[in-house]
Input
Amino acid sequence: MSLLPFQRASEIPTEGAALTRWLVEGLWSEQAVGILGGEPKCCKSFLALDLAVSVASGTACLRRYPVRQAGRVLLFPAEDSLAVVRRRLEGICAAAGMGLASLPVDVITAPVLRLDSEADRQRLTNTVASLRPVLLILDPMIRLHRLDENDASQIAGLLSYLRELQRRFQVAVLLVHHARKDSHGSRPGQALRGSSELHGWGDSNLYMRRRGSQLTLTTEHRAAPSQDNIPLQLTESGSALALTVVTGLPAGAAPAGSTHPAPAAATPLERVRQVLAELQGPASAERIRELCGMRTASVGESLAALARQGLVVRDARGYRLSGSAAA
Output
C-alpha cells in the first residue's frame, strides 16, 4: 500500500520559520506575488512606479516604507505612453532626491504583451531570465490577456504562470488590476473585478481607494499584519508629481482641498504598535519615529505607555513587542 509522506506536527523542524521577510517593509513581502488594485483614477500606477523607484534605489517607498532588498526592476506599462512613464518616474525620483539615470529600472517597450499567448509568455520568461529583476510590475492586467476575467478556470492559468515565474526566478510580481466601480461597500479584496482567484492568489495585496480627492491605501498580507486606510495625496513640486503619506492629521480631518473626511487617524499608541508588529526584530526609538512619522516625544510617550501595559519590551538592540502582544 502506497502512502503519502507525513510527519508528526511536533517533530517538524522550525529552522527557517522566521518572521515575514520584506521587499518593502509593510507594503510588499519578499518574492511575493500579488495585486495592486483600485478603481480607475486612484493613482495605482503612481504607487506602482513609486515601488519601482524605491526597490531600484533602496530608498523608502513613499518616503516612509524602507526597502529591505534593493535590486533591478522590470516594468511593463501597457496603458501609458513611454514618455509619460519616464516623466512620472523622474517626478518620483525628484521627490526622493535622486536622479533616474542611475537606477536599474528597465521598461518593456513592446506595444503588446499577451500572457494568454504561449509565445509572449516565453518572451517574458526569457526577459526575466536575462535581466533577473527582484521586482516585475505588470500594469494593468486587463491589457495582458483576452480571457474572461470572471471565469476562474481561465484566470487560474494566467496566475499559475506568474506564480511559476516567481518561484523559478525568485522575483516578486506585482499585477495592477482594476476594482469594480462604486465598490466602496465591499472589502477591498472582494471589490476586485473578475474571479475571486485574483484575491486569493496574492501574498501581498495593496488597495487604493478614492472618496472625492481623498486617497487611501490598505495593505493585506498572507503572513503579516495588515493596515487599513493609510491617507495618501498626490503632491506637486514644479512639474514633478509623487504620492506622499499624509501625516499628523487629527481624527476625521482631511488634506487640503478634500471634500470628504479622511478615515479616523490611528492613535500614537496604535501607530507605534502597528510599526513594531511589522518589524522583523527590535528597533531603536529613532527608527520607530521614522517609520511612524511622529514627533520624538510622542514616540517616547507611546513606548513608555505600551511598556507599562506589558505590550513592549526593551533590550540592548531596541524595542519590540512582547510575546503576548505579538500573539
Summary: The CA atoms of residues 218 and 228 lie 4 Å apart. Residues 249-265 have pLDDT under 50 and may be disordered. The two ends are 42 Å apart (CA to CA). The longest strand covers residues 227-237.
